[in-house]
TrEMBL record:
PANTHER family: IG HYPOTHETICAL 15966 (PTHR40051), YOLD-LIKE FAMILY PROTEIN (PTHR40051:SF1)
InterPro entries xrefs: YolD (IPR014962)
A Pfam family it matches: YolD
Lineage: superkingdom: Bacteria
Protein name (record): YolD-like family protein
Organism of derivation: Caldalkalibacillus uzonensis
Length: 118
């Protein structure tokens, strides 16, 4: 005989407690989100100089770059050409076919110069 909920030894008494209140689900989702929070990477002087050099090259020679940006829960990549660097505000203006975007120096943790423009 195939065991089911009614067969002896089943856990029928606790079957009704398998549902969760919406408040509990929401609390579990918030907990999972908090656990997936990332810490901002700390860059040394050499890494910062390397990033600055690549941004300057993109600005001067109109080279396409991929900029990796820190996000609390998920990092993201932005591709484009540097059009302006504003050291006073700590921002870089990156332009691609679809949009222009100002990026904060604090969020940039890696820059690579692209070989070809897509």
């Amino acid at each position: 005989m195939k065991p089911n909920k009614i067969t002896p030894g089943s856990n029928l008494m606790w079957e009704s407690s398998r549902w969760m209140l919406p408040e509990h689900k929401e609390a579990l989702q918030k907990l999972k989100q908090e656990q997936s929070r990332q810490k901002r990477p700390v860059l040394d002087e050499q890494q910062v100089e390397e990033i600055n050099d690549k941004l300057r090259q993109s600005l001067q020679f109109h080279l396409p770059v991929t900029v990796c940006l820190f996000g609390e829960f998920k990092n993201r990549e932005v591709k484009g050409v540097v059009k302006r660097i504003n050291p006073a505000l700590g921002q870089v203006k990156l332009v691609n076919d679809q949009e222009e975007e100002w990026l904060s120096f604090q969020d940039i943790f890696d820059v690579s110069i692209e070989d070809d423009w897509e």
